[in-house]
Amino acid sequence: MFWASYALAALAIVLAWPVPVLLSRAQWPARSPFTAMVLWQAIALAGGLSMIGAMLTWGLEPLGDNLLAGLHGLWRILLEGAPASTLGLVHVFALSAATLLGAHLVFTLLLTYYRIQRGRHRHRDMLNLLSSPSADTPATVVIQHPTPVAYCLPGGARSVTVLSDGLLNMLSKEELGAVLTHERAHLAQHHHLLLWAFAAWRAALPWLPTSLLAQRSVNELIEMLADDEALHEADRMTLVRAVAIVGSGSAAPGAGAEARLPPALPAPGNTPLPLGGPDASEPLGTAGRLSRLLTPQPPLPRWQQWSVLCLSILLLAVPTTLLIAPGLLN
């Protein structure tokens, strides 16, 4: 496991810095957002597994030739009173660091989920007071506000799409249909779960610049996916007009959905998924989305999409193999 720990550490460094930077600057994700989304998830999972695995395999190296043997040896030391003389101070430190990092990641994931859920409940309670059900559209509520607002509030069977009456007055029937299809795509494809996972990654590793790059890129990709779904129901120019109208509701340059909400509604954090984009200050704000819709690029060829998907599987397989394969690099 000695060389496996070094290989895992090298992989963790590559996935923590150069790979996310290069992917965030690439142009091809706009041509295949689903494929890019899978790759981002693989990078995050493989990176976390490599970081923890590198420290874990280094700490367990004196106790066995692979992870299972090392864990068995650690079990005997902790619970059966076996001698721990083979473990040096550096190994104990590595094991402690792996345990703390793993616990930190899990705790941050759960804490982020709790905070998002609490924000959703608070936001839903305010919507119950300030909104009324749409007479024409199921699972949709309308708030009285002149600014064009559209976002969805996930909640399983209680998921709703929120529109402002100002938006309804500006949109034609076809444009409204494009808005609703876009927002329902967010719910149907469970984009809020992706936002939760990458928000937790950023919260757990705020010192890692690429955690911010990953969150921004995922925010962009979910908007692309929802736009592409809306194009199945509406023609391209109809969606362009709808995006432009909703985007015009920003209270100031760089303002997101929270700035467009009525003052009585609390900022819902990561909960809503607005048609105007996750944050207009991000690289793919309203202007970026309009540019993508007005000048569509051909999708990636099938062989390239499958190549990226195979690479994603490989990213997960390599650290897993390095962890559990008996004496692979010994």
Automatic annotation (TrEMBL):
Gene3D superfamilies: Metalloproteases ('zincins'), catalytic domain. The chain crosses the membrane at residues 6-26, 38-60, 89-114, 306-329. It holds the Pfam family Peptidase_M48. Residues 132-197 form the Peptidase M48 domain. One of its GO terms (molecular function) is metallopeptidase activity. Keywords: Hydrolase, Membrane, Metal-binding, Metalloprotease, Protease, Transmembrane, Transmembrane helix, Zinc. Binds 1 zinc ion per subunit. The keyword Disulfide bond does not apply. Residues 257-281 are annotated as: Disordered. Its EC number is 3.4.24.-. Its cofactor is Zn(2+). PANTHER family: POSSIBLE SENSOR-TRANSDUCER PROTEIN BLAR (PTHR34978), SLR0241 PROTEIN (PTHR34978:SF3). Belongs to the peptidase M48 family. This is M48 family metalloprotease. It comes from Arthrobacter zhaoxinii.
